[in-house]
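Memo to structure team: turn this sequence into structure tokens by end of day. - J.P.
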Amino acid sequence: MKKSRLAVFFVVLLALLGCAVLVIPQWINKEAAVQEEGETNSEATVEFQQEAAELMVQFESNLETHHKRLQADGERAYQERYNEIVLEENEKLALGEQALKDEGQEYAKQLQDEYGIKILNRQLQLAIVSLSEEEQAAKIAEIEFFQSELERLKEEREAELQDRLTALYQEYEESLDATLLSAQAEIEASLEQDYLNYKMELQTALDEEIALLEGKLRRSLANRGY
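Reply from structure team:
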């Protein structure tokens, strides 16, 4: 009885071992297939990430190159505007200086004409008219007065013109600074807009490239799923 049970046990054991021999290789093959599929999917994902990273690097490189070009263009444009503005402001300053100089000379001529005649008239009287000592002293006093008035009025006008010239220089500096700042702001705004437009175009192109890569990845994963 024990021998028969033992025989049956061995038969069952052999049967189980036989089944195991048949089943185990199938399980191993299925696991290997899943692992291989996972590795393939992982490779596709890594490839996608690498290509996307390369696109991002190129994106940043293009932005940096464009930024440097814009910076050079901006410096060149500002230098051109600087030269133009300084030339214009210097011309206005020169015209203002000349106007003040002409005004001073014209006033000096008027004074000389007005007081010169008076002085010359008294000097002639002293030279050709017989005058008493008191009359001569009076004429000399008048000449000295006219000469003093002539110098006083000239000095007053010269001081006034100097004040106006100082104000002209201050106005020149303020106008120059304001115009240069305005030109700089205008150039910077233009360059910034250019940069933003370029960045948007580049971003759109990048998004399209990424979308193509994503589509390629999805198709690859879908095909390997069958």
